[in-house]
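[09:14] KT: can someone run the structure on this one? pasting the chain below
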Amino acid sequence: LTDPLAERLQHIANAVNTQKNNPALIQEIISLSEIFRGLSESTETQTQSILFSIVYPTLNFWKAVAIQFQQEHSVIIRVLKLFTSFLNAQLFFLESPKDQEVVGQALVFLQSLYEVSAKIFSNVEEQMKEKLIRHILKLVIAIVGGDTVSIRSRNQNDYNAQVVLYGLQIVISLINEDIIQFPKLNLTFFDALSVICNVYPDQ
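[09:31] RB: done, structure tokens below
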């Protein structure tokens, strides 16, 4: 399983700089990200640790791809979905320090997206902008989900809370009067606020 996936990852890594505008490469990225997302979503305890060892080492690669293809919104959305699925499944099982490493990866990804957000959201239709923001918000919610079912140390809980609040600040900074006209985003946003307030009341 891992050898063919590794070969496809290496092929993309080699082609990124020379074939960035190649539609076939973009489709290959989307296809491979969906495979890794499927692996991420497994919640079988027998395979969870194995799949973690397959997917986790590739997260830096996927972050780099999202930034490299920052104006290919379909790529960014697929990578956001991959991260969200990984956090949703893995944070239920992980214990410190692995859970902090995973949340740390999400933090770095959020920071990277925020740094290039002006380029990502330039000349973007409002519908696509809403979709991007909603998927960023889902990633933030996935971090909260791990804390609703796990008993973690106070330090870990506080760390996760800070990452969640940082992600929420990014979302708020991207919302404008046009975006709040989309019902799905409004529902997701207020559901997130409700969960965040319940899980991190001290914050």
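[09:33] KT: thanks! The CA atoms of residues 16 and 22 lie 9 Å apart.
[09:34] RB: yep, looked fine to me
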